[in-house]
Automatic annotation (TrEMBL):
Organism: Aeromicrobium alkaliterrae
Residues forming coiled coils: none
Positions of the FMN hydroxy acid dehydrogenase domain: 1-347
Entry cofactors: FMN
Family of this protein: Belongs to the FMN-dependent alpha-hydroxy acid dehydrogenase family.
The protein, known as: Alpha-hydroxy acid oxidase
Top-rank taxon: Bacteria
Length: 348
């Protein structure tokens, strides 16, 4: 993780607390980072690795690599270019981009910026279902019309996690385009209260029918919920504890992935996130059953420090590390990573 003092000078204590913080005592936030080193890599030697292929398949489409930009709200508070910075970085590195429905840049503007850099670039749209259903439905229409190819419905946010940093700073957000385009700044608590806490599996079906695009459910940690997601027609599942920002002391993403992959692996695309900062983290996720991996804060710090170029540098480094990991693991194709390449690390 980057030096917080430096970032505080750049973006201010309120935004830093919001971006960096987690729920409760931040045990899950810390564990997300630590969890990757609980798994050890098992390299195979004397394999021809002169050619490497980082490719994966998501929603039936080949992608040149498995690194995905996580949906993150209010990016103009990290850097004035906001979502355009991370989206351009994604387009330049052929990374799948997921735009938050709590964006500070409109979905069509983000789509245009990506197309200008890389025509045919891929993006998904993340949806929160708000109490005002019309707002969510409008967002889905905007996303579909501007070429977003899947709807990521986040299901781990019926209410906000217990976020003590925001309570201390009283951080307020300007211009969340969906909810308050030209109104006064709102506290995160006011914005979070607009989420619909009564959302159930029945509503997912309704949004899936109306979406006209594949639906991916984000924020699942239990195998029985993963099975239910498959039964409800989801095309993908993002195994995630929301970057430790919702319920403190849950499993880390990678620890939750293992039983979920056992339950539903092969019948649906599996993505995982939480604390990913290195290419070898990505390799471990793939070996344990993920098809792709989302990166959140690590990328946001790149945006905060250097705008689009800063975010691009972060993505390029993770991809170079993944390439190096495949070579050193003796597994030249990312798609061939399996459980033989990873195991528990003896702790002590
Ligand atoms: C500042 C911030 C804002 C976020 N906003 C959203 C959001 O709008 N929608 C969503 O589904 N997840 C959101 N998330 C969660 C991320 O998509 C992702 O699950 C998490 O950040 C991954 O963990 P990492 O930051 O350790 O990589 C947010 C995370 C952060 C750090
Ligand atoms: C209401 C905005 C939610 C953004 C988010 O998901 C987060 O802060 O974790």
């Amino acid at each position: 993780m980057s030096d917080p003092l430096d970032l505080e000078a750049l973006i201010g204590p309120g935004a830093l607390g919001y971006f960096a913080g987690g729920a409760g005592s931040e045990i899950t936030l810390r564990d997300n980072l630590a969890s990757w080193s609980r798994y050890a890599l098992h390299p195979r030697v004397l394999v021809d690795v002169s050619e490497r292929d980082l490719g994966t398949t998501l929603l039936g489409r080949y992608r040149p690599h498995p690194v995905v930009v996580a949906p993150m709200a209010y990016q103009k508070h990290a850097h004035e270019v906001g979502e355009l910075g991370t989206a351009e970085a994604a387009a330049r590195t052929e990374s799948l981009y997921v735009l938050s429905s709590q964006t500070t840049t409109s979905p069509p503007d983000v789509a245009r910026a990506m197309e200008a850099v890389a025509p045919g670039s891929d993006r998904w749209f993340q949806l929160y279902v708000f109490r005002d259903r019309a707002v969510s439905h409008d967002l889905v229409v905007q996303a579909r019309e501007s070429g977003y190819e899947a709807l990521v419905i986040t299901v781990d946010f019926p209410v906000a996690g217990w976020r003590e940093r925001d309570r201390r700073t009283g951080f307020t957000v300007e211009h969340p385009v969906a909810l308050n385009p030209s109104g006064p700044p709102l506290t995160t608590e006011q914005l979070f209260a607009m989420h619909d806490p009564s959302l159930t599996w029945d509503d997912i079906g309704e949004f899936a029918d109306a979406a006209g695009m594949p639906v991916v459910l984000k924020g699942i940690l239990r195998p029985d919920d993963a099975e239910r997601a498959v039964d409800s027609g989801a095309a993908g599942i993002i195994v995630s504890n929301h970057g430790g920002r919702q319920l403190d002391t849950t499993l880390s993403g990678i620890d939750a992935l293992v039983p979920i992959a056992q339950a539903v692996g092969g019948s649906v695309d599996l993505l995982v996130d939480g604390g990913v900062t290195r290419g070898w983290d990505v390799a471990k996720a793939l070996a344990l059953g993920a098809d792709a991996v989302l990166i959140g804060r690590h990328l946001l710090w790149g945006l905060a420090r250097g705008g689009a170029q800063g975010a691009e540098d972060v993505l390029r480094q993770v991809l170079a590390e993944l390439d190096s990991t495949l070579a050193l693991l003796g597994c030249p194709a990312a798609a061939d990573l399996d459980a033989s390449y990873v195991g528990p690390r003896a702790v002590g």
